[in-house]
Amino acid sequence: MKFILGMLTGIIITALLFLFFLKKQANKEALIANDNIEVASEPSAKLTNGFIQFYDRFHSDSVYQMEHIVFPLEGIPARLEDGIVPEGFAWQKETWKLHKLFDGSDGKFVQTLDEVGNALVIDQIKDTAGDYGMQRRFAKMGDEWFLIYYAGINALMKEEE
Length: 161
Prior knowledge:
single chain; alpha/beta; Nuclear Transport Factor 2, Chain: A; two-stranded parallel ribbon; 32% strand
């Protein structure tokens, strides 16, 4: 009887661990499959200095978007395997995939737009578990806003508690 109870306990624990890792893998595959980042939700009304108007147009007008990116664009490629950025990496105009407005209505991702001073906005999108995320930085240069940095979707470092 103890033998059967021990086996059943082992099977249940193994099944739970399997389901946990399967769920994690499914989330990871969903993120990797999302090559066209749809960046979502309305920018906060507290953002100033013409950023909201720029942000809306940046995501709705492809020509405007391409004109408002500083190429070669600094950043980090998506889906780094070992966490090491290739030397000399920069996003190129010829291979750029247009960004669309983020839609967080499914509740799987959250977006934050943080204004740093009056000439820098940091746009971050993370999955709700905090395992994966991307970041963009926009800077006001003269009278215009530009995308100056883009880190594609990658696993995030966990903060030690």
